[in-house]
């Protein structure tokens, strides 16, 4: 297969982890070519724009993008580029797998949870924010829609079917937030009936947090609204050893952007010690999305084997003495040998 994707190396550690990731993709021989475009501080400095039109055009043209982390400047009224991209391309599903890998400092060993987070509405968007003149009262609106709830719940069930998963848990707060969260829950209950082969259960978000920490093995696919998904998916990343291993897929009907959940890590940028795995795992999800599931699995297996057997090569955040490039080299070697 021959396919071009948009590649945004990003800020901070972005170019370092992107370089390692593209080397592994090339070693997999999946027929991908890359159109490099810019966003974030790099784009602001070069073009005076955090998100140039050429970048939006490239994503629209190729429909698939691999994105490094972007720095959103503090203050100055800048909106998050990630939120802008999600809105612009209506990337309604934020899919965040959390899988245990060997050799991490995680508390659990057999976690395999996918959080499917609604990405375009809900409390996270903080629509209609106001602050009273005396600074005493802040207001922000929560807007959930039947359309938004339906498409995210359906996405979660379809994903469960496609990936052979057994159970979908809808996480909500409908006991208190009766309209907005209640709408989401009612829609989830209705759609669940269309998938009798997948077990369905529902859980209030505070209990879900406790259950995730106490008995994570009961979870398979979680579907939830935007803000709860933001928090729960980081909790799940923590269960498997932190953000260095957490990919985030942003999926819409017309485009999909694959990225690491972590940020541009300015504290370690340029030191050559950033862990490339989160972006690599996002690239593996991208291969699944492009119909190359065997290549995606090959990449995940190579990462797993490297973390098990090539401990010297792994980066310091995983307890190794290696660098971004030694980690990348070891994974490339395993991909080639497989
Ligand atoms: N998706 C994105 O583009 C995205 C996501 C989150 C934050 N950000 C941006 O990133 C910048 C920095 O944010 P932050 O410091 O809060 O979060 P961060 O995720 O960049 O860093 C948090 C901590 O984790 C470490 N870390 C992160 N990724 C790592 C990796 N791959 N390997 C090893 N260690 C890693 C960092 O060194 C740091 O100590 C901010 O400008 C923020 O807006 C971007």
Automatic annotation (TrEMBL):
Enzyme's top EC category? oxidoreductase
Kindly give the Pfam families that the UniProt entry links to this protein: Iso_dh
Q: Does the keyword Oxidoreductase apply?
A: yes
Q: What InterPro entries does the record tag this protein with?
A: IsoCit/isopropylmalate_DH_CS (IPR019818), IsoPropMal-DH-like_dom (IPR024084)
Isopropylmalate dehydrogenase-like domain residues: 4-331
Protein origin, superkingdom: Bacteria
Q: What is its EC number?
A: 1.1.1.41
Keyword line: Oxidoreductase
Query: One MF term in GO for this entry?
Result: isocitrate dehydrogenase (NAD+) activity
PANTHER family, alphabetized: DECARBOXYLATING DEHYDROGENASES-ISOCITRATE, ISOPROPYLMALATE, TARTRATE, ISOCITRATE DEHYDROGENASE [NAD] SUBUNIT ALPHA, MITOCHONDRIAL
In the record, the note on similarity to other proteins reads: Belongs to the isocitrate and isopropylmalate dehydrogenases family.
Protein name stated in the entry: Isocitrate dehydrogenase
Q: Which organism is it from?
A: Dyella halodurans
Species lineage, top-down?
Bacteria, Pseudomonadati, Pseudomonadota, Gammaproteobacteria, Lysobacterales
